[in-house]
Write a structure and sequence with these properties.
mainly alpha, Arc Repressor Mutant, subunit A, 2 domains, Tetracycline Repressor, domain 2
C-alpha cells in the first residue's frame, strides 16, 4: 500500500505519479493484447517513457503485473472495509462481503483472467520475497473475513463454530465461482450468483430430510 501522499516529498510524489501512470497504461495493454502479447517496448511506447526509464521502476514485465496484483488487492481490501463497516454486524456484513468480492472481480475480469491463466509462470518469475508479500496480503484478507464471521457468531446469526472454519468454507466457495466465471468466460454476471452463494452458505447443500429418507 502506498504511503499517504501528504507525507511524501515532491520528488517522491513525482516518482509515485509516474509509477501509477505506467501501471494504468500496462493494465490497459494487458487487457487489449494479453500478457504474452505485451512487451516492455510496447509499454514504453504507449506510456511515452523510454524502455530504460521503465526499468528504473520495474525489473521485468512480470514485476509490472505483480505490482498491479498488489495494488488491486490493496484496493479491494480498502473498498471492502469501507463498505462492510457501513453495514450492521452479522448476516448483512456476510452478504455485503460476497457482493463486494464478486463486484470487484466482475469489474476487473480481464485483469484476473490473465492472472488465473498465467499464475504459475508469474509465481516462478517474481521471486520468494514477492510471494511472501502476496501471501501476507491474503492472510490480511482471511483475518478480515474471520472477524466478520466472529461478529456473526456473537450475534447468534450463524452456528457457533470456529470462525476460521466458516471463513475457509465461504472463501472456498467464492474462489471456485470466481475462478470458473473468469477463466471460462461466463456470459452471465458474476454478481447474479450472490443470492445462491449466500443461501448455500447459510443453509448448506443438503435438502431437508423427511421421515421417508430415514426409513
Amino acid at each position: 500500500m502506498n504511503k499517504n501522499s501528504a507525507s511524501l516529498s515532491r520528488k517522491e510524489r513525482e516518482h509515485q505519479a509516474r509509477r501509477n501512470y505506467i501501471l494504468q497504461t500496462a493494465e490497459k495493454l494487458f487487457a487489449q493484447r494479453g500478457f504474452y502479447g505485451t512487451t516492455m517496448a510496447d509499454l514504453a511506447a504507449v506510456s511515452e517513457f523510454s524502455v530504460g526509464t521503465l526499468y528504473n521502476f520495474f525489473k521485468s514485465k512480470e514485476e509490472v503485473y505483480y505490482s498491479l496484483i498488489m495494488d488491486k488487492l490493496d484496493s479491494m481490501l480498502e473498498q471492502l472495509a469501507r463498505e462492510i463497516n457501513k453495514l450492521p454486524e452479522g448476516l448483512p456484513q456476510i452478504k455485503g462481503l460476497i457482493e463486494g468480492i464478486f463486484k470487484f472481480f466482475q469489474e476487473n475480469k480481464e485483469f484476473f483472467h490473465i492472472f488465473f491463466a498465467e499464475r504459475f509462470h508469474l509465481v516462478t518469475s517474481v521471486g520468494p520475497t514477492a510471494m511472501r508479500e502476496l501471501r501476507r496480503k491474503y492472510l490480511v484478507y482471511i483475518k478480515f473475513v474471520t472477524k466478520i464471521m466472529a461478529r456473526a457468531i456473537k450475534q447468534k446469526e450463524v452456528k457457533d463454530v470456529d470462525p476460521p472454519k466458516l471463513t475457509f468454507f465461504l472463501v472456498g466457495i467464492m474462489n471456485a465461482f470466481i475462478f470458473h466465471w473468469t477463466v471460462y468466460a461466463q456470459k452471465s454476471e458474476l454478481i447474479s450468483e450472490v443470492p445462491f452463494i449466500y443461501r448455500l452458505f447459510l443453509e448448506g447443500a443438503g435438502r431437508k430430510r423427511s421421515k421417508q429418507d430415514d426409513a
